[in-house]
Design a protein that fits this description.
- By secondary structure, the protein is mostly helical.
- The protein has one domain (7-103).
- The chain has three helices and no strands.
């Protein structure tokens, strides 16, 4: 990593390299997190299917229920993502409104 006094201001390439390194580190951390969450979700799905199969006595029905639950969880995650995007959009609009009000 590039360091030193004024390294970012003296050389735009150094600042770009630092920003790129940070972005790559963040992407790798997100990938590790997603991989861990996927493994946990897979284990939960397998356990849930076994439980549902014991309750219903039908492996086909258990699979359908687990698949439905998985679909609903995915839909819920998508809705949460869209809500966050909406909030971000509202925050941008509020920032623009505040800026315009300050310009008066």
């Amino acid at each position: 990593m590039v360091s030193g006094p004024g390294a970012d201001g003296d050389r735009p390439e150094a600042a770009a390299l630092v920003a790129l390194e940070r972005a790559v580190e963040e992407a790798l951390a997100r990938l590790r997190d997603a991989s861990e969450r996927a493994a946990v979700a897979e284990a939960r799905t397998d356990e849930l299917q076994r439980i549902v199969e014991r309750v219903t006595g039908d492996s086909g029905e258990a699979r359908r229920l687990v698949d439905t639950l998985g679909s609903l969880e995915e839909e819920n995650a998508e809705l949460r993502r869209r809500i966050e995007e909406g909030r971000a959009g509202v925050e941008r609009l509020l920032a623009k409104i505040r800026f315009l009000e300050d310009q008066r």
